[in-house]
């Protein structure tokens, strides 16, 4: 390049080219001069614009030099340029020389600008600062690499966010914890990425407020991983600031604390469950709370509790209503059925909790599959402590993912044992209360023993019922207020004190006269005179002993006195009485044991030693601790008793099995308490225990069970007797009723005979009703009444009852008022049976109200029930009868005239039927002559929101069925007259009761039928062979061949003429109806039958060809009779 070659050879120069070159060189030189003219001498710093000028001059001169060099070499020969410029090579070389010099000057100026002269000390300081900065940078980079290494190796999730909370960096642990990769999180906020439906809004608001304020914070929050896993995060956030203190980033460090939270929840669940169990409520009250507490705190969706009947291995039944979580109720997905028995089998063998991870894997239709389907279940056995019997099972269900580990299974097993202990306690608590009452009765009922205890100063602390009866004082008059000196003879006390002073060599006075020997470790036994409150005197034998504390100091005295007023007893009886008395004092009727709370026995009375078979020497040698005589079967109860002593200072009586020295087990009822007044439990604290041998009680229980079985058998025999009595009473009523109908048919002119006929008719009906009531009570007592329940409007029930009871009300000329609610009320009940209940109440009111009285029936809703009130102004109920008015055969009127009659069965049926419906009945009266009110309450039925109108009574419309015979004969003329011009029938009457057969035959003949009567089974078959009878009315209990066999043979015959077979019998039992049906009878009527029904059956032959409805074997005789009549009226 020409810039590096200033020496060139000049050649021939054209004048025009020379001028142009001079002009260009001059311009370039001037430019270079301008570039360097601003350089200052002395090496001072050149301003920034001057340096730019120097740099521009250098590049300009260098560039033009290269241009001229190119022009000189153009055209293939030096000095030739392909431009129209007449320049010679010499001129070009000269120009390049000038430009080279200008470029050199410009470069020198540029270098002078870049390297100004400087102070050496300043340079040293700058070099030191630069080295320090580089060292700090290296340390910072090293620290950064170490921090990044630590963040990548820690289990905690670490993130760095900008000021707006967007993630700029996250470590690998964050990815492992959340499931999100680095590309998925950068630029997103942790809250928007990880928070879910169960994240606390309050916690989120707190974290946002602290971040916006630029402050750090710590919080625990629920997050959700990428796969949906819910976990708890303990999060710490700190602000990051630069060297100037400006906030640039946030650093967040989070740790998964799900396990800790689960452990905390388990502890909270155990604490809450323990609190509920310690409340001591009943099982049906406590178990729903326990299910709700455990299910809610452990995040389950549903739970159920099943209890085993008959102990371990028994069939499970629901022990509490199932619990459903609020979120399931909100979704409308409450379970319709939860499996209990099927899942319980998984834990009965092991006694530990079990986790069923996939309920859907159970076979289709399996009892282990809940409805609706749930995902998994935790099955918890309820056992009576560790290794105890399985008393039930708790099952908790979840419909979503649920993590169950060994710690949760162990915790739930422990809870199941606690619940089992509670269940066992609930089962025995009632028995314990009965035993306690019996124990108190044993102590207090005896009028022969007075037991009085005092403190060390002689102030009375215990004054039992025997002492009250013996002395005439109430316990409240003396306890804490008086000493035994109150009821002792003063002279006798002074004389005895003087003798003791001389004997003991120390002064004795006042109360010391009773306890001086007891203070020295002995017993004071002697005869004393008691002065009763009324001033009378009583001679007693008094034994006084000191009660010692754990330190051997006297803490009080116990005295027992027995009445010695009967001095006429024989000497042998007196010695025997004194021996029994001493044993009673020493045993206090019970075995008494003193020892430490840890279980050692330090002292015991003879009664206890006799119970267990050990000697006092063996006890003193330490061979008789509680743990040695309590077998494994009662070890848990003993442990619980000790725990209760530690917590409450006393232990409620509990039944334990104790091992006698000879190896046999004896049942003891044991109660214990701390001896010190403060009852502060500590090691070595003294405890006193009272023991009662309950072997006799168990024997009595067995005896009671045996007697209950005998009573049940007697009740069965009574029901059989009533059934037979009803049958025998019905047979003679049938001909009487038929005869009355014949007399009505014939007509009578004599008023006296008409009146006599009506009396007979009325009495027959009344006797038939009494028989029906008697048999109905037998059916109810035998559990043979089955309700046909349906949702029914109470107005329909009232209408049926009024139809039945109206004749009785009209007969008494009573005024009946009815008050019904404006809105419809419905109950879930058997309409016929409830009509019978109300009809019985109205008839009862009419029966016991004088003629012309008033009766009021009101119906209204009360506290979720429907209340039926029947009020009258009749004779009333005396106070002593109010509690017995619903008893069997109970009657208010017990006078000799028995003007009202009846067996006293109506209200007994009312009470039984109402209770079968889940209701109650009660009676109110201010006494005789004030009237009475009977109230029946039934649960009110409320229609679900989605259901429409519910039909009223539905089903049967035979309202008269509730009223027995009154309903059956409500309209005899209508029944018989409904058939226009009945065609005469050929009727065969078969009955061994000649009067019954002949009267029925006469009655049929009077109605225009052709009737024939026979009196045994073979005669009936021969009569049917001789003539074709269209209807056969036949008794069941026939001689030679019963009615069942006759019916079977008639049905077995070939032929088209099939007669209508009607059983007319006194047998009203369900078994008799069933056998009639099987034998081929078309109808089964119970004597005495209303003649209208028989005539209607005979006249309505369509019945013989129509299909018969299935028989209801739970309905009474009058139910069938009335339905027969109603169907005849409707024309079948």
From TrEMBL:
The organism of origin for this protein: Aquisphaera giovannonii
Example of a GO MF term: histidine phosphotransfer kinase activity
NCBIfam families cross-referenced by the UniProt entry: sensory_box
A family per Pfam: Response_reg
Entry EC no(s): 2.7.13.3
Region feature Disordered, mapped onto this chain: 946-983
Name of the protein this chain belongs to: histidine kinase
InterPro entries (UniProt xref): CheY-like_superfamily, GAF, GAF-like_dom_sf, HATPase_C_sf, HATPase_dom, His_kinase_dom, HisK_dim/P_dom, HisK_dim/P_sf
Start-end of Low complexity biased regions: 967-982
UniProt domain PAS: residue ranges: 143-189, 435-505, 577-619
GO cellular component: plasma membrane
